Amino acid sequence: MHIYFCGSIRGGRDDVALYQKIVKKCQQYGTVLTEHVSHGELTEKGEDASLEGDKAIHDRDKAIHDRDMKWLEMSDVIVAEVTQPSLGVGYELGRAVDMRKKIFCLFRPSSGRVLSAMIRGAEDGSQFHVRDYSEEEVERILEEFFSSLAKN
Ligand SMILES: O=c1[nH]c(=O)n([C@H]2C[C@H](O)[C@@H](COP(=O)(O)O)O2)cc1CO
After folding, report:
1. Does pTM surpass 0.90?
2. Which of 26, 40, 44, 81 has the fewest CB atoms within 10 Å, counting from its CB?
3. What ipTM does this complex have?
């Protein structure tokens, strides 16, 4: 199974330790195409952050976008940690809906944030799921999600 993990990068890296936990768990069920999102050394500047010059920056961002859209197409399931707001994650989720992918969003109410209505309101009971959770239960929740996939 190909899994696409979405997590904030330029939106802020506060939850990176949690992304690592999620990616590690997902790797028990398949290949995580976007493993780099969980890397501790990746900063909020994003990949190849040392590039300079408008053209180099444009080319880098285009390469990231095009690679990620290819991975999104290839993926069987999308797992997104949506607590830290991120334009990129919101974009990926919108594109994934259009591709009719199975989507599982994880949100932590303990953050004090209120999840965007464009994510919470996209829940449809079959392809798009939003799950409120706390950090201690993340592994169990992922186990439940992947075993529910196996049954469908
Ligand atoms: O360097 C990057 N590499 C990359 O794969 N992304 C993708 C994967 C993440 O799920 C998402 C994060 O978006 P943002 O950077 O807007 O928070 O976008 C985003 C960036 C930087 O925007």
Report:
1. yes
2. 40
3. 0.99
**pLDDT for 56 beyond 80:** yes
Per-residue pLDDT, 135: 96
Q: Which residues line ligand 1 (CB under 6 A)?
A: 6-11, 34, 37, 46-47, 64, 68, 86-89, 92
User: Which CATH number is 2-42+55-151's, of 3.40.50.450, 3.30.310.50, 3.30.1360.110, 3.30.200.20?
Assistant: 3.40.50.450
CA distances from 63 to 47, 67, 97, 109, 144 (A): 11, 6, 22, 34, 35
CA 68 to ligand 1 centroid distance, Å: 9
Taking the CA of residue 12 as reference, the ligand 1 atom at the shortest distance is 17
